[in-house]
Design brief:
single chain, Immunoglobulin-like, seven-stranded antiparallel sheet, signal, DUF4352 domain-containing protein
Length: about 200
């Protein structure tokens, strides 16, 4: 168990996802390759109604939807789909995607709910989401303690425990089980969001 935690700590220090400029292609279809990078498309300036997604995932920069709980407009600003596999002993992780969202027309109830932490909730404010899968290949349950920090190349260190707006991603994975589509979402300082090209976990 301690070996898995140590491997996870080493992974968190060394692992980074590169977010590169627009115009490239992503490596979505290359699940077996993990070069540590993914191409990112930036949001287009025009926010037309054909970019509205009523139900489903936001997959292209500029697509937007309404948050069902707060009626906030949520726009996908950036996305990287690295499909990076990380071996943590009996626990295998697949980093599926990293997304940056802009949340605007923020209600007072949303501001109040997520007011804790170091990053204030303003109108608009930004969030970063990391989505991943975990597989326990061993015969014993494994604890995954989640992520401690997300660090951007714009020198912002996000404390996942303090600035998350949901769960911190810590849980137990049962023997020979796969946990799919887990994610963490944290508040992101709006300074230099457009300049973010790299995120380190």
């Amino acid at each position: 168990m301690k070996k898995g935690i140590v491997l996870l700590a080493v992974f968190l220090l060394a692992f980074s996802i590169l977010l590169t400029g627009c115009g490239g292609t992503d490596n979505t279809g290359k699940e077996n390759q993990s070069d540590g990078s993914a191409k990112v498309k930036n949001k287009k300036d025009n926010n037309t109604s054909d970019q509205y997604v009523e139900d489903g995932l936001l997959l292209k920069p500029g697509e937007w939807t309404k948050d069902k709980d707060y009626d906030t407009k949520v726009t996908l600003e950036k996305i990287a789909t690295p499909k990076i596999k990380v071996d943590l002993g009996n626990l295998n992780m697949l980093i599926k995607d990293v997304k940056i969202f802009k949340r605007e027309n923020v209600s007072d109830s949303e501001k109040e709910e997520f007011s804790g932490g170091k990053v204030p909730v303003t109108d608009p404010y930004y969030t970063i989401q990391v989505k991943y899968d975990l597989e326990n290949t061993g015969k014993n349950a494994m604890n995954f303690n989640g992520f401690d920090y997300i660090i951007t190349d714009q020198k912002q260190q996000i404390d996942v425990m303090t600035d998350n707006i949901g769960m911190n991603g810590a849980f137990t994975v049962q023997p020979e089980a796969v946990v799919e589509d887990e994610y963490i979402i944290c508040k992101l300082k709006k300074d230099n969001v457009d300049g973010i090209k790299k995120v380190t976990l």
